[in-house]
Amino acid sequence: MSHLLKRGMFINNVLVFIFMQRLLLHIPLILFTVALTVSINSCKSAQTSKTNNSSHIDDVYIPKDLNDSFDQLNIILKQDDIDSLRALKSEEDLWQYHFGLGLWMRNNWRLWGGSRLSTYFNDLGIYHPDDISGIIITSYWRHLNNLPLELDAQIKYYQDFWENAANPDSSLQELLPPPDSLNNEPLSLVDDNIVSKHFSSLEIVHLQTLLNFVDEEIRSATSTQSSLVCHYEEFFKRMIDQTSTTPYYLLQNFNYSSFEYILNNIPIDLINEIWEYQNFAENSDNSDSGTINEITISRTGKYSEFLKDASNKNSLIAEYNRSFQFTGVISTIMDVIVLRMNEDFKINLERERLILAVHYLTILQQNQLK
Predict the structure, then answer these.
(1) Which residues pair with 275 in a beta bridge?
(2) 180: pLDDT confidence band, cut at 50, 70 and 90?
(3) Are 163 and 325 spatial neighbours (Cβ–Cβ below 8 Å)?
(4) In this predicted structure, what is the pLDDT of residue 184?
(5) Residue 254 DSSP one-character state
(6) Which of 139, 162, 156, 141 is nearest to 44 (CA)?
(7) Residue 295 pairs with which residues in a beta bridge?
(8) Which parts of the chain fold into alpha helices (H)?
(9) Distance (Å, rounded) from C-alpha 62 to C-alpha 60?
(10) Residues 205, 14 contacting (CB under 8 angstroms)
(11) In DSSP terms, which residues pair with 242 in a beta bridge?
């Protein structure tokens, strides 16, 4: 089970939610878009439409309630893993289990598919599998540390989230662009025809995870308390100010371990549709044949085709794509386009933020090779 904490398992059956990759309780939610297309009622019906109250599904024991899930985790996890989880200083550190242990629970305990454990949480007013696994992990950590579970408070936290998401208040309106500025283009990945033309619903979920990670890291790297657009503006300004002395210095603050957790839970086929990993010294007697020497964006994958189509909507992205197709790498010209003309990116559009995310995640991986 130890390897599940590090790698997780691939998602088997996914309901598409714009906000599905939120972090655990008391961690700032990645709530950067207000285009919520799945209502609370549809979430409820999706979770309760197919109920299986069996104690076992595919030879996996399904806990009947929260306390039973503790008992199962005590059996499944190695003692070293339990000790490591218990030793975490703060609940804010629990996010790292969301993509490993949390993903394992969502898949194997069938939190997506109406198992008796999901029904137990449905009856408590919790419907989304991410919320269920978040409550279990948070409660288990508190249980291990002899702290009050405060289950009612946790439930209210998630219920308030969905209520606010379905009825965004004025504090979220700052994320919306002026009425005509985006020509009614969809803000979210899941509603974007250009994205869905090239990627499946499951792949879009994984792309959303990558985007959410970069959004959250940029928020953490900047000091503004305003909208996501303002966080990006400050990020670009600070990157420009340091370009001549310390290029990409803010990327050094990105949590690479977090990114690895996410990357390890993305199917390898999708990773290869985005990135190309090269080993220039593969046949050399003096090199390790498994060593990766270069990471760049793939010019033959789905992402490259997506980038071409996205170019038709933004002349700046068209320039970026032309440079990429010519050089095949993250070139200086591409960096100049991103930094010096960043105001032409439509930050409210997740499609264009995804391009920025892949750009900086490519650089982030390259920096790890140095």
Answers:
(1) 297
(2) very low
(3) no
(4) 57
(5) S
(6) 162
(7) 277
(8) 2-6, 40-48, 66-76, 79-86, 101-108, 116-123, 129-144, 151-166, 170-173, 193-198, 201-221, 228-242, 256-263, 268-274, 302-311, 315-327, 332-340, 350-369
(9) 6
(10) yes
(11) none
pLDDT tens digits, 118-151:
899 989 998 877 789 999 999 999 999 999 999 9
Distance between CA atoms of 261 and 256, rounded to whole angstroms? 9
The mean per-residue pLDDT over the stretch 270-282 comes to 77
Buried b (16+ CB within 10 A) or exposed e, 161-199: bbebbeebeeebeebbeeeeeeeebbbbbbbbebbeebb
Closest by CA position to 297, among listed 176, 225, 210: 210
d(CA 116, CA 111): 9
Instruction: Report residue 359 as tokens.
Output: 């750009």
Q: What would the two tokens of residue 182 be?
A: 């985006």
DSSP SS3 for 71 = helix
User: Reduced to 3 states, what is the DSSP secondary structure of residue 264?
Assistant: coil
CA distance 11 to 79: 26
Report the interhelical angle of 302-311 vs 315-327 (nearest 10°): 140
Q: What tokens were used for 90?
A: 């703060």
Residues 6+ apart with CB under 8 A from 209: 21, 99, 262, 265, 266
DSSP 322-364: HHHHHHSS--HHHHHHHHHTGGGS-TT-HHHHHHHHHHHHHHH
Note whether 139 and 26 are within 8 A (CB).
no
Residue type, 358: V
